Amino acid sequence: MKVSDILRVKGNTLYTITPDQPLADAVAVMADKDIGSLVVMDQGDLVGMLTFREVILAIQANGGSVGNAVVRKAIDTHPVTCTMDTDLDEVRRLMLERHARYMPVMDKRMLMGVISFYDVAKAVVDSQNFENKMLKAYIRDWPAEEEPGR
Fold first, then answer.
1. Tell me, what DSSP letter sits at residue 142?
2. Which residue from 19, 114, 136, 140 lies 20 to 30 Å from 83 (Cα-Cα)?
3. Alpha-carbon gap, residue 113 to 14, rounded angstroms
4. Which positions ≥6 away from 133 have C-beta within 8 Å?
């Protein structure tokens, strides 16, 4: 299974923010849309990822409030990325290795989408469920063996 398969099912809704917007605006968008990340774009280029992890760290560093911080001060400027052709096993390995819950999907410099650890886990479970159904159907339709001597 490829990343393109996940995005085809998930859809292509993207939420982005610019690095110079107030962090409070980013928090409001994340809360309003019930999302855990925003892709940070500057003049059409990916410049980072803002996830709830970075938001919490920024709030803690600012004495418990968002204050007047801008997005640029909180983002991960080197997020792990993948392409539409990246295999799901590689995505799982990268996410686990880098402790990344969200991964931008890129086609050269163009942002194609974002996949989450949840999206990956759901794809794996759905694939396993389909395989189990096919195996059970195959077993159920197994031809009966003839008894010896007949």
1. P
2. 19
3. 6
4. none
**Phi-psi sector, 128: left (phi>0), alpha (psi -120 to 50), beta:** alpha
Q: Do residues 85 and 38 touch, judged by C-beta distance below 8 A?
A: no
* pLDDT tens per residue, range 109-132: 999 999 999 999 888 887 777 777
Q: Can you give the pLDDT at residue 80? A: 95
Residue 143 has pLDDT above 70, yes or no: no
Q: Give the pLDDT band of residue 148 (cuts 50, 70, 90).
A: low
Question: Would you identify the CATH topology of the domain 3-140?
Answer: CBS-domain (3.10.580)
The Cα 101–Cα 109 span in angstroms is: 21
